[in-house]
Write a structure and sequence with these properties.
By secondary structure, the protein is an alpha+beta fold. The chain has 4 helices and 9 strands. The chain is globular, with a radius of gyration of 17 Å.
Length: 200
């Protein structure tokens, strides 16, 4: 495994992936789109309260490693940082995304809300789809596509979170992150994180 792939594998395990800072990433919030920041914060509280265990497999090109760990709130925050960073409920993104509500998913009995850039190709979050059963509080899945590119660098991420509902609580039960990084004059690095969450 080359040094670039080794570095990527290291950051996959620490729960933090190198990412350019997203515009408008301050603490100011708007209520124009689905609030990923609030969702992640609520999920972290429940995961810690329920003593959840994380089972995680990271694959970089042809190398795979697995581990299981119990995290505190700071650990879960690092683990879910990429999803939180995809939050577009920020003043810089006001009116920048089109919103479609209660679309029917042709592959299931779910509805989804979809958020896509209106005309700004520089926006890194290309699509967010929030899937739910009948109403938004019955969350089932969130799909996020992120892409960054310039003359020296290309990066893409496809991220999916899956949720279960039990006793009127919606809980994260697994997620998948598939990424690709390409630096000029370097080999492409493909990586995947597959994570499942178990409760005692």
């Amino acid at each position: 495994m080359n040094s670039v792939a080794s570095s990527v594998l290291l950051v996959l395990w620490t729960g933090v992936l190198v990412s350019c800072k997203t515009a408008g990433s301050g603490n100011l919030q708007i209520q124009e789109y689905y609030n990923l920041d609030s969702l992640i914060s609520g999920q972290i509280i429940m995961l810690v309260q329920k003593n959840a265990w994380l089972y995680k497999k990271a694959t970089v090109n042809e190398s795979t490693e697995e581990k299981q760990i119990q995290l505190d709130s700071a650990g879960w925050a690092r683990e879910l940082a990429l999803f939180r960073e995809a939050n577009i409920n920020k003043p810089a993104f006001s009116k920048a995304y089109s919103v479609k509500k209660a679309e029917k998913d042709i592959h299931s009995n779910l509805l989804f809300d979809m958020f896509t850039p209106i005309n700004d190709e520089d926006l890194r979050i290309k699509v967010i789809r929030v899937y739910y059963l009948d109403e938004i509080n019955s969350l089932r899945k969130i799909d996020i596509v992120k892409e960054e590119k310039n003359n020296l660098f290309y990066s893409s991420l496809i991220m999916t979170m899956y949720f279960d509902e039990s006793k009127k609580e919606v809980l994260l039960h697994s997620y998948i992150i598939k990424g690709k990084q390409k630096l000029r004059l370097k080999d492409t690095v493909n990586y995947t994180i597959e994570a499942s969450i178990k409760f005692p």
